[in-house]
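Appendix B, record 7
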Amino acid sequence: MTKIAKGRAPRTGPSGRAMAGALLFALAAGGGFSRSARAADTLLFCNRPERLRAGGVHADAPLAAGQTYRVFFHFRNDTPRTGPLVIALENASTNPTNRPLSVLARKGIADPRRDPSEAGRQAMARFLQAPPRRYAAQDGTIRFALTLKRREVASGVLSVRADRNARLRIFWGSDAITW
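Structure tokens (predicted):
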């Protein structure tokens, strides 16, 4: 498992401003969360390793309560078998009375496909068309699952804001089934 890259949209230089402005315009046109450019989301890039060759946790990041995160993920199944990929948002509290979790999310997850560019386009199109929706789980874990065949790509864009401290985890293979 490698560390998730974090960052913010560039704020200096003419090309950075132009790109950030174009992204904000596209998100506003798609019905996104309405905020100023200064209130940028924290970006989480989850694609290392891009090629899944073994089961396990392939992304793990803490999410602070009330903070909005933009999550990009992209993985290719490089194993000879079909298996599950699970994107999970888990309540970070160990206290059983604090287990329920509520998340406001905007979800753009592509259907598994062999062509990475098609998967990326479909994920972004779904994200831009998706309205924000509230997801809740009494057991403290919200899961989005995909089944990837050999050489298929999973690609997605999510915007999430949890009501309490949480964790983002992405699992592949048998760990995803038992988790």
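Remarks on this record: The chain has one domain: 5-178. Residues 8-33 have pLDDT under 50 and may be disordered.
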